[in-house]
Amino acid sequence: MRKFWMAVALAGVLASGSLAAAQVTETAAAKAVFQVIQEVSQQHWGFITPDAALDYIDSVNPFILDVRTPKEWDATGIIPGAVTIPLTELEQHLNQLPALNKPILVYCAAGARGQYALTYLKTLGYKNVKNLKGGFTAWAKAGLPVEKK
Predict the structure, then answer these.
(1) Does a structural domain hold residue 11?
(2) How many structural domains are present in the chain?
(3) Is residue 111 included in any domain, yes or no?
(4) Which of 108, 121, 132, 138 is catalytic?
(5) What is the mean pLDDT of each run of 10 residues along the chain (149 residues)?
């Protein structure tokens, strides 16, 4: 019965507006991220399958960016030619990134960190960024080339 009255009291407070929601203000950064989300959602979230990525590497010669951790690189290797920068350190290594017009293939272990990196790169002004679907795990599972770091 006590839980019931607590729920009733909470409902009354919510209904009266005493716990008003904070005002949300859109910032320039939020607007930029939302524009990227809209753009990549229309492009299948920027994903590219491992087999298509291999063809992409051969035909386009993109900058290949591995955003996993050093422990992951040491344990599993990397895609040949990849530049290794952990996602959490990407901002400190912008000088290692190519010109804005160079295509980029980014990957992590499974795809999530790659998606964060893709979003960040797009907000920096990169137009042609693809994220390896399934990440390095899918690449290795497909039997595609791997080299030790």
Answers:
(1) no
(2) 1
(3) yes
(4) 108
(5) 46 49 79 74 79 97 98 97 98 97 98 94 94 98 95
